[in-house]
Amino acid sequence: MNRTTTRRQFLHQSTGAAAIASAAAALGRVPVFAGGQQPESARGGPANWKAGVAKAILTPEKGVWLAGYGSKRPPEGKLHELWMKALALEDARGRRAVLITSDFQGVPKDVSDRVFEQVRRKFGLERRQIMLTFSHNHCGPRLGDDLVDYYPVEPGQVELVNEYTALMEARLAAMVGEALAHLAPASLRLGEGRATFAVNRRNNREAEVPALLAQGTPLKGPVDHAVPVLTVARPDGSLAAILFGYACHPTTLSFTTWCGDYPGFAQLELEEKHPGAMAMFVNTCGGDQNPLPRRNVELCKRYGHMLAVGVAEAMQQPMPPVSSGLQMAFEHADLPYLQVVTREELLVFRQDKNAIRARWAARMLGKLDAGEKFAPSYPYPVHAWQLGREMLVIGTGAETVVDYALRFKKEFGRGTWVCGYTDDMIAYIPSRRVWEEGGYEGGSNLYEYGRPALRWSGEVEDRIAASVRRLVAEVRG
Ligand SMILES: [Zn+2]
Hints:
Bound molecules: zinc ion
Oligomer: single chain
Helix content: 25-40%
Strand order of the largest sheet: 4-3-2-1-5-7-8-9
């Protein structure tokens, strides 16, 4: 398959059923999907699980700024609603897990910790039983103290973000309760499609990408174009949920209108195509991947459509059922910083021309003045869920680069999902390769995320891999 050609063809396609068929053909597989018709392979089979779904709107009603780019971005209307969604699963022995997906740009540790505490008290769910993922949507709202030094300080905005954050925490916990209350017999099936719009942004200059694509010149650098798909069907064959993933930043758009970027459009298209089903998106390891070219709504819709086509493609193939059985493990891996920042360095940075670094330095000095001591490492969340014999979900915090997904999928085999952006926004998480190369995702940029250091130690990949291996051994034991 010529991926470059495929991608170019996609960029010039119109939407609709005919386009889905031709897109699937362009991907090198036989299209058997006719518009409006639900694929048989995604339904039926033994209902050896229980599943419950729930969703809630997260679009702010007041003037919370949009998140993710380093500037003041007051909202101007919306293209569509933003959502948080929950899938509760229970195996034949009554063991439960809840996966949350959401259109948040970033969920910081304080916020997810409070949500985990609420669901523990209200529903008895331990930390290993719940993952709180976010798509990293840059047309989503600020939340908690995520990227707090990114934005110019305005007291009114601080109040709005605090008020909105408290509302979202309560809504997240209530949604988990609703998903658990809706647990009912279901069967799970696994598949995989492809979508080719993610570009390794470290290895290709954004301005050159359109010309390279037009020439058919292959783009450089590792990518993960897989679209893993899990369907949840009721005994009557109706679909309750379609969970799918992709490794790419939702940064097609940088305007100030609420929308879910390409994952938002993909979910809307799938829900329209499968009435009654809830579509859920997880960003797999897209820390160094961008949707290119970008910056207009037409392209954003097109990428959403390409992703929906990838899901449709997976659902046209035979989808093996997931046998009942749920094993879950969780731990914090200790990720060391290269060097914790000193008071002397902060005093210099406070005068920095870079406004983000200056705000960060002033805030860090305030912490030191208040008697706080900076820890030399960060507690990094790592999950492993084994579903039956067929599916392994590895959940990793923050902006893991694509190397993590490629590595763990190779290491643990078919049916492995590697989700980034789980539980905590933290920072970029470079692999050893990216750390050695340096640059934006691997270099001295931890100040942007409010960490008390400039750079990770080169060991972070080894620490995460050791943790993942330990947890996978536990859930497969
Ligand atoms: Zn990012």
